[in-house]
## 1
Amino acid sequence: MVTENWLIESEDYGDFVIDSDVINILISYRQLGKHDFEAGGALIGRIHTGNIMEANDLTLPQPSDKRTLYSFFRSNAHNKILNDKWKASNGNAYLVGLWHTHPEPIPKYSNEDKKDWHKVLKQGQYEGQYLIFIIVGQKDIRLWVGDNENFKISLIGEYSLEK
């Protein structure tokens, strides 16, 4: 069980914090069995002063999502959960990114992932200039940041689950 937050320090994009509770939930969805379907959802958090983005909550896979061994499509149920959490927090909890799993040790994004990320960067409702994208692999979790000004996607963090 992870007890410390994951801090990613980036000169180009600021700092990102993934809370340990979020990491533990992400780990629980790893595709370790040959019949485990991809899972995913949204990352919820806030942007603190000093250019620090924190992910301290997330949406879990929903029954209306489309899940297979090699694909995951978020349903609109995640938007309702995000909206409810935003309202309950008086506007202090909002979309900071997306997450999903891959059935590979060290995850790489697919063309479909990149298309989805660009769509959310262009059309999503969120605060700030960046969104984070997490893919949970069998041995590592990787974090990319997307910039809504130039739509560049950059790998900025890797968290090894073999500690």
## 2
Amino acid sequence: MRAYVGLGSNLGDRAAHLLLGLSALSRLPQTQLLRISPIYETDPVGPPQPLYLNLVAELETGLAPKALLSEMLRIEKALGRERRERFGPRTLDLDLLLYGDLVLKEGDLEVPHPRLHGRAFVLVPLLDLVPEGRHPLLGQTFRELLAPLDRSGVRPLVL
């Protein structure tokens, strides 16, 4: 199944955390890392904190959605993620954005990601990978969802 995962980091060596996260995702069983978006530096959502680096990864996976989420949480923890406050800073954040066209709400798993449609820092890199993509629940294209959002806090990373 084709899945899209959002990666973000705003603590420590942000780029290294993203690379370690991508490496760990690529080593998951029954999973192949197909493509990644460019990296963006983004303004934080929530309490005052450092700027984020964000990207979206495209995976082909045989893991069920719940198993994939479980592996993603394990990767976050292994790379130093501590869940202290909602929307707080983090070494690595992995969000399951899409799992094919699946629409599912089951315990701590909701796909498409429940805030996908309102986050420019997710939609911009997602559009890099699937420019004609459509939200499986809302029916709108990702481009249509991005149009009314403020994109000023999403800047391509320049090295």
